[in-house]
Queue: 2 jobs
Job 1
Amino acid sequence: AQSVTQLDSQVPVFEEAPVELRCNYSSSVSVYLFWYVQYPNQGLQLLLKYLSGSTLVKGINGFEAEFNKSQTSFHLRKPSVHISDTAEYFCAVSDFYGGSQGNLIFGKGTKLSVKP
Amino acid sequence: EAQVTQNPRYLITVTGKKLTVTCSQNMNHEYMSWYRQDPGLGLRQIYYSMNVEVTDKGDVPEGYKVSRKEKRNFPLILESPSPNQTSLYFCASSYSGVRDEQFFGPGTRLTVL
């Protein structure tokens, strides 16, 4: 069965510093990959997704992620964070070849805390 | 305004008392899904529906039921709630499946005593 590992449960960082949130998934033939963000007391919002094509994916709010098939990773990066990026970030994967296009597996989340 | 609504937003109940959490979307989306969120466990998918009358189990379906009689509504039913179903529940919808952006509802915080 598909699984997702977010390697850091909490990441503290200073404002304007770069950040990388790490995500690994279990091997599969074909996957869709996603990053969602949850601001305090809100639902989730899609940051970016990888379906096919270019392995570097750009999303909203200056975030980007790189799909690495050989390392089964999909790390999220931002070159300079703002206080407003403080939130919980979730990596998710859908195994559309072995499973259905309705099943989505989330990681346990990484809490990004941006300090002034 | 395009949105997913859930009701109630907060609910405290007792073990064994049947309850329904409603979910409705006004975007004409084919796909709808239910998740539960627990501290340290992230989100886990309970059930999903690819279309009217088509539902399938997610990763944690035990103790839950769903139905999809109309495109816009996807209620979550707990026939006999237990304390381990205390959680934050989110409904989501998208145009045709997980490859499309899912729009999430505001969440329902359920406490089962």
Note: The radius of gyration of chain A is 14 Å.
Job 2
Amino acid sequence: GQNIDQPTEMTATEGAIVQINCTYQTSGFNGLFWYQQHAGEAPTFLSYNVLDGLEEKGRFSSFLSRSKGYSYLLLKELQMKDSASYLCAPLSGGYNKLIFGAGTRLAVHP
Amino acid sequence: EAGVAQSPRYKIIEKRQSVAFWCNPISGHATLYWYQQILGQGPKLLIQFQNNGVVDDSQLPKDRFSAERLKGVDSTLKIQPAKLEDSAVYLCASSLEGAMDRVEATNEKLFFGSGTQLSVL
């Protein structure tokens, strides 16, 4: 079976840094995605990690530890528009099934 | 490049009625996914197609839901009969590859359509 855990809600201040953690258990792990979803919109791709370590892309970075079944998304210099849900999604199986966690709702306030 | 197209955008039906959703993936994308997203939850995978074959439908309620992808391009998802708990957004997504012998890992990146918001009354 598969299990994905991430915090339900987080709040942060504009300009600050926030880290959203995700732990997962899957069979046949092939990498992990992070998606952003604004209210009423479809998810959009943020990052993909397949090897251990940190992937940096502008204000967003994502880290993966395969041995620990752990990933985090780091958002720097937070802006109001970063208020959204952040979905952790491990890729698994022979046909690369993408299973989403429940998501972390991030609220950025002034 | 055109994105994933879905229709209708919104649908309101009464319980026990039937409804169908349509999806046209990005041209050339082999893999097509249907997800159900209930308010406040993450997307739940209903069915995954690789070209025109089903590779995963383990979470599809087969007594009422059906999906097909004729000719390996566009797809329809049907609910018959609908229940109150089917109220959700139905998201279609596509990706380039979807198989283990991929060359570029990021070919697995999913592109989502805008979704169909279904309300069952």
Note: The radius of gyration of chain A is 13 Å.
